[in-house]
């Protein structure tokens, strides 16, 4: 049996980008991922992670399209990372609000 390929980790920058994408499931492991600008990719996550964007093909990383599909699938790493990013954004918003109220005084 051939060795199983180890999945690379999801990069937080790509996950931040993935949070802005629209994902539609078209089967148990196939997704259509679309950006606000109308760019789209078809991705598959089983048995291997497959996306035909330059990021995935040229760099052999989990691109924003795959990250979005993994999040839609409920992948544990993707869900945890998205939650961490949302938490950081909430803290940043709170700090910004505090700084604004200090400047107004």
Can you characterise this structure?
By secondary structure, the chain is of the alpha+beta class. It has one domain (12-104). Helix content is 50%, strand content 13%. The protein is built from four helices and three strands. The chain has helices at 12-18, 54-59, 64-73, 76-104, and strands at residues 22-25, 30-34, 40-44. A three-stranded antiparallel β-sheet has the order 1-2-3, with helices on one face. Strand 1 (22-25) and strand 2 form a beta hairpin. Helix 3 packs across helix 4. 23% of the residues are buried. The model has no long low-confidence stretch (mean pLDDT 86).
Secondary-structure map with pairings?
Elements: H1 12-18, E1 22-25, E2 30-34, E3 40-44, H2 54-59, H3 64-73, H4 76-104
Antiparallel strand pairs: 1-2, 2-3
Helix pairs in contact: 1-3, 3-4
